[in-house]
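note to self — DONT lose this again. spent like an hour looking for the file last time. sequence + predicted structure for the chain T wanted, 456 res
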Amino acid sequence: MTSYDYDLFTIGAGSGGVRASRFAAQLGARVAVAEDRPLGGTCVNLGCIPKKLLSYAAHYHEHFEDAAGFGWTVPTPSFSWPALIANKDREIARLNGVYEKLFTDAGVTLLRGRAKVLDPHTVAIGDQQVSARHILVATGGRPTKPELPGIEHAITSDEAFHLAELPGRVVVYGGGYIAVEFASILAGFGAEVTLVYRGAQILREFDSDLGATLAPEMAKKGVAIRLTTRITGIVRGAAGLTVSLDDGTQLAADSVLAATGRTPNTAGLGLEAAGVALEQSGAVRVDADYRSNVASILAIGDVIDRVQLTPVALAEGMYVAELLFGTRRPPINYESVATAVFSHPNVGTVGLSEAQARARGAVQIFRSRFRALRHTLSGRDEQTMMKIVVDAATDRVLGVHMVGPDAGEIIQGFAVALQCGATKSQFDTTIGIHPTSAEEFVTMRTPVTFLPGPAS
């Protein structure tokens, strides 16, 4: 039998790589991980965690304003961007240490440096070479910029987390979840924000009612949204940046944030030389068990073309650890993956969109729009939207969608219901918690539309 230095060698210490490595070690495997950047990957360092902290911070100006309606007198507040960033960095450093301790406690060897695959069982980290029975690629992805004149003057979400000062005027280019989140966050801190998007509706990958509801709500909070518009060039001058649009107008800005997409981190890993097939996007092509065409090399997380979310990478990591060293787990149900967009207001969604469901057959749509109870005293004109997509033939709930405060917290529970195959009648017989916004999901009784499904 061939002898290897390790049973599993993981390239990348982000969410998926850490989870796979820890659990593989707990199952008795000899595991090593290579990482040349801070531990925790995108989520901990340049994604979910710092973004949510900034989102929390950006809500406070509204909280101060709303307090007056509830009888509070609040002195004029002041905000320090450097203080926020310093506090955020301190928390991220703490989490980096937590991840290192996870490796130590699990008996995983951590190798600092950039790894390169030499062949199906050999990896180089600098001048060191090690062999492994299995190699797991978990290198994540990175933001990309569109090709246009002056794009070198734009930043991405990576740099946005480390700005020395808050820009006064910002143009955000894109209409996906990263774009709407940063537009909301920066506007919440008082920046003058314009979101420019080539499409006709933001969040076009989600249920159409989500983007249609979110856009006017963001506008109420000060975000100017320019749809069906492209940036044609960026020029830096003495007074800042001039952003030219394809409709002939120009915008003055202190910063341009490009949020038009991400690409898998496979460049320079040696995968193609080792025989691993990549998609045109650069993603590792894998089968249902996350194996590449080279059987000993697997890949998970944002480096493959599945669902690019931290909890999904965690689930994929668990699956791979069990597949290689334990008992095969049930396959991941990508259709029932819940997610939240931390825009202002939040978006939460799980299951099929209305369009996806209708493509499969007849559906019933239940939808409600209302002003949350807290705003009857705050005076704020913020609307909450909730929507349920139901299979008309089986009564099974296929999708649950929401725009409103704490949408992610609310949708998480309904994700469990969808995973269990809940029906609309079961929603109807569930007693709601009153008074909450969440109870609306179990009190909607009359469908707003009946859609017959595709013509046969």
